[in-house]
Design brief:
Elements: H1 49-67, H2 71-81, H3 96-104, H4 112-133, H5 135-156, H6 168-180, E1 185-186, E2 193-194, H7 201-206, H8 208-227, H9 238-255
Antiparallel strand pairs: 1-2
Length: about 260
């Protein structure tokens, strides 16, 4: 039923990292440890606050839909807040919902499985990006990637009446952004985030890791997308994923902020 039911693969696991202590001894007594020398305990969860907030909002909305709204009310909610390409073909008036649904669809999900996969992917890729660019820039990036995903979907399916839902477009944008950092994460920081400069596209294309990831992402996304939608299963919005990914890959520099002094050469 839901044309935008889409799953996002998750990668990028934060591994705990310890710091080796450089212990020295005098002939009489051990030198005391300085604050810098003490091993840093990395928290089990390093989720950025803005990422936690989005997960709470998406989860709360889905619980509300499943356990509070009836079928008719839920259909009306999808009609207003999901992204429907057919709304823009000229046969329908452009109302407030036509203006906001290219953004609000990213907070709706087709099932608990759909929600869980997207939120896990958001936690994995969203936190290092949010820690790098800050909460406000991250929210702006989320909205812009969401819009880019919807626009490319609209370009390919201008008369589609199936509602597009899911955060996968925005999350795909985070994957594209990660490639511009060559997936470098400073795991020794209090809030692990992508570090180093945003690489030029030419450098990304010379990185074996980035090329393998981008190639595998496109092949998997297209293969899963074009083979979905059979046997009554929802169609995966693979074109929207590509729209978000390309936006993140090409536009992350616009959202980046100056890295901390210790990260600059």
């Amino acid at each position: 039923m839901l044309g935008g039911f889409c799953f996002s693969a998750m990668s990028g696991r934060h591994a705990a990292n310890g710091q080796h202590l450089d212990m020295t001894q005098s002939t009489t007594e051990e030198q005391p440890e300085t604050e810098e020398e003490k091993p840093r305990r990395e928290p089990v969860f390093n989720l950025a606050g803005v990422v936690v907030a989005i997960i709470v909002v998406c989860t709360g909305i889905h619980l509300l839909r499943v356990y509070t709204l009836g079928l008719d009310a839920d259909d009306r909610l999808l009609l207003h807040f999901a992204f429907l390409p057919i709304r823009y073909n000229g046969d329908y008036p452009i109302d407030i919902f036509a203006l906001i649904s290219p953004l609000t669809y990213s907070f709706l999900h087709g099932s608990f499985a759909h929600l869980a996969v997207n939120m896990i992917a958001l936690a994995a890729f969203g936190s290092p990006l949010a820690n790098r660019i800050g909460a406000t820039r991250f929210l702006l990036f989320w909205l812009a990637a969401t819009l880019a995903a919807a626009l490319l979907h609209l370009f390919f399916y201008p008369n589609d009446a199936s509602p597009l839902v899911g955060a996968s477009g925005a999350i795909s944008g985070m994957w594209g952004a990660a490639a511009r950092f060559d997936f470098r994460v400073d795991r020794t920081a209090r809030k692990p985030g992508f570090f180093g400069p945003v690489l030029p596209l030419s450098a990304v294309l010379r990185s074996r890791m980035a090329l393998v990831f981008i190639g595998a992402w496109f092949v998997t996304n297209i293969a899963v997308g074009v083979t979905s939608g059979t046997n009554g299963e929802p169609q995966i919005a693979w074109v929207a994923h590509i729209g978000g990914f390309l936006f993140g890959l090409l536009a992350i520099r616009l959202f980046d902020r100056r890295p901390p002094v210790e990260q600059r050469a």
